[in-house]
Design the sequence.
């Protein structure tokens, strides 16, 4: 399932392929399904008890680019959404619905000066070659505003590692789908696949407002910036260290009681679990906390190396741990004594 | 372009060509006779005219492609690396690699996420020393499977870009080998007064050793070298690049034999084959520079296939250019070494 999910294209606001796939997978497993004007997909699961409403989210969008123009020579100019442009040179991409192959070119090393090689190429000076020899030829294949995604296959490697594009946040989507299919929900629960997280938590904000849950859990991918000899703590998380929890990140303070209870529960059930060591990034918890009546909220995350690149890398153990802890919340929330 | 794809699928990194020489010999055997791999690693094969004391033409294109090599273990399942041949480090982040150890080990060249980089860091070009390969393995397992000095291929895909352009790593210089084999196909039924030896020479990217050895061994009467030259890109100097799709580039300069080069140009013109010219006042940066002074001196002509994004995994050529280069070579050989109809 993760393989299919990561192979789909879905940059912010072009998420329909992902949403359609998820819809077809969960439609026979939900008590009710709703949509809204931004295409958020709301899946309702009736609980054993009533009185409290729980909400889980996973966002469907991924980082990518939009075609911002076409040059007279037939090259595409582009604007990225959430990407460090230094990683882009020499990569392969797919342009638009028809998945036209393209490459992000750079002149040969032989034609560069030593000074040029010391500088990063700015995104505005980059271009995508789709093999067109003129503007007219390129316009037959694409147009301004078309979306562009990385060309990167799902690959398992190392000791239980997975490499794919868009693990942020298809790993959350896969977890939520599994939860819908397999969990025996304690309370009425909305499992929401949210759009446009990468451009400012936009789908999540609307969804939280619409549901006004008592408890909110975001299923996410978070950064693991480990490299050898790194300053201690700056790695944020460890791959293979289990599902990551945090008391705060770049955008929110999680509910302390909830995070503490989740860590306790993980220990009791022998679920691998770790605390993030560096406050960075942000996720939909922030959106949920700042709308409506206020909500008890936290994020469960799978650590990923090289986040926002064509090759995000995760450990399957962490994915499994996130699922197990999310299932605990779904099935035995009252035992956490946080509501 | 099945042949080109097949040629590109062969792994033969500079200095480690032995991993691909047998597969290439098998491909050569479909076009040529007496195919062999010489002791140094050059792959060779002949198209013989069957005439006594016939002159010998050497068709050279280098076999090796650039790659990386394990420099050290860095801990945490990471390895540091050096390059085999010239890479711009800025194209390496987020590339996938295969480390050829006891087994082939998949890895990725890691980039730090932007969340934790300073504004200054984001403006700098990535340096080779900052890059590491992440194998996803435990250190023990990593040391078991690979060693310092294990060669590394940068993974690549091959695909069409548009209708005529073919894109992927290793086209420098499998495009050249492909050109020679396509030329041989057109010469098979020709009545020639010369023998032809096609040489896929090793180590071009790290010192052009293979071509020197082959040229000494064969001592040919003429060498036709095919390599790639820089194609036009929006960021490249137009005066230093050739346009993709406008035919092969014929190189002019002291490295190349003036008489043969002018016959080549005349042949191209007579056969309505579009071509471009490029000028090199000294070392052409190809095997031609070394072959010219091998043995007792060997006249050389150099034909180059324009190629964009050289030394990346997205090298791009025009298939039409490869075909017209092959036709040009075949017509040139027929013109100079063709026998009379009743011979």
Sequence:
């Amino acid at each position: 399932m993760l393989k299919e999910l990561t192979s789909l294209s879905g940059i912010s606001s072009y998420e329909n392929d992902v949403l359609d796939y998820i819809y077809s997978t969960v439609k026979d497993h939900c008590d009710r399904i709703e949509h809204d004007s931004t295409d958020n997909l709301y899946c309702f699961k009736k609980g054993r008890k009533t009185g409290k409403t729980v909400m889980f989210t996973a966002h469907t969008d991924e980082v990518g680019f939009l075609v911002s123009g076409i040059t007279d020579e037939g090259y595409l100019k582009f604007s990225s959404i959430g990407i460090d442009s230094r990683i882009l040179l020499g990569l392969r991409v797919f342009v638009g619905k028809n998945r036209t192959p393209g490459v992000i070119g750079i002149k040969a090393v032989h034609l560069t000066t030593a000074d040029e090689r010391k500088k990063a190429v700015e995104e505005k000076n980059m271009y995508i070659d789709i093999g067109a020899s003129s503007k007219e030829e390129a316009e037959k294949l694409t147009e301004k505003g078309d979306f562009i995604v990385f060309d990167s296959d799902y690959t398992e490697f190392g000791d239980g590692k997975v490499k794919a594009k868009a693990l942020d946040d298809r790993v959350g989507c896969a977890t939520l789908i599994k939860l819908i299919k397999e969990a025996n929900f304690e309370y009425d629960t909305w499992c929401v696949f949210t759009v446009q997280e990468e451009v400012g938590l936009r789908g999540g904000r609307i969804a939280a407002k619409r549901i006004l849950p008592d408890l909110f859990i975001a299923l996410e991918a978070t950064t693991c910036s480990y490299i050898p000899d790194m300053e201690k703590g700056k790695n944020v998380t460890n791959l293979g260290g289990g599902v990551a929890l945090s008391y705060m990140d770049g955008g929110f303070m999680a509910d302390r009681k909830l995070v503490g209870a989740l860590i306790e529960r993980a220990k009791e059930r022998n679920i691998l679990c770790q605390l993030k060591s560096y406050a960075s990034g942000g996720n939909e918890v922030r959106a949920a906390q700042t709308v409506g009546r206020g909500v008890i909220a936290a994020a469960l995350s799978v650590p990923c190396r090289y986040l926002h690149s064509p090759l995000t890398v995760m450990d399957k153990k962490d994915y499994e741990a996130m699922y197990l802890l999310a299932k605990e919340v779904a099935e035995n929330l009252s035992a956490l004594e946080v509501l | 372009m099945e042949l080109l794809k097949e040629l590109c699928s062969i792994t033969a990194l500079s200095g480690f060509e032995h991993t691909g020489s047998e597969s290439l010999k098998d491909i050569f055997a479909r076009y040529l006779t007496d195919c062999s791999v010489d002791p140094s690693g050059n792959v060779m094969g002949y198209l013989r005219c069957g005439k006594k004391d016939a002159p010998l033409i050497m068709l050279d294109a280098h076999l090796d492609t650039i790659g990386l090599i394990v420099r050290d273990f860095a801990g945490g399942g990471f390895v540091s690396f050096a390059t085999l041949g010239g890479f711009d480090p800025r194209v390496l982040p987020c590339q996938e690699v295969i480390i050829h150890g006891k087994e082939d080990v998949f890895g990725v060249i890691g980039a730090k996420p932007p969340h934790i980089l300073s504004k200054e860091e984001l403006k700098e070009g990535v340096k080779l020393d900052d890059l590491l390969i992440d194998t996803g393995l435990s250190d023990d397992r990593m040391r078991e499977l690979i060693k310092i000095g294990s060669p590394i291929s940068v993974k690549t895909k091959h695909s069409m870009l548009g209708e005529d352009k073919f894109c992927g790593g290793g086209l420098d210089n499998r495009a050249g080998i492909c050109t020679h084999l396509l030329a041989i196909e057109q010469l098979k039924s020709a009545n020639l007064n010369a023998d032809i030896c096609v040489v896929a020479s090793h180590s071009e990217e790290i010192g052009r050793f293979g071509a020197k050895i082959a040229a000494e061994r064969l001592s040919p009467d003429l060498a036709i070298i095919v390599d790639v030259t820089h194609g036009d890109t929006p960021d490249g100097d137009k005066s230093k690049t050739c346009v993709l799709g406008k035919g092969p580039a014929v190189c002019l300069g002291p490295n190349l034999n003036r008489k043969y080069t002018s016959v080549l140009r005349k042949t191209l013109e007579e056969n309505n084959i579009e071509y471009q010219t490029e000028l090199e006042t000294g070392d052409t940066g190809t095997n031609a520079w070394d072959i010219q002074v091998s043995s007792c001196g060997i006249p050389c002509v150099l034909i180059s296939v324009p190629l964009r994004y050289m030394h990346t995994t997205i090298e791009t050529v025009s298939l039409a250019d490869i075909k017209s280069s092959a036709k040009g070579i075949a017509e040139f050989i027929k013109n100079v070494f063709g026998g009379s109809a009743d011979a």
Chain B has two domains: 2-65+169-337, 67-154.
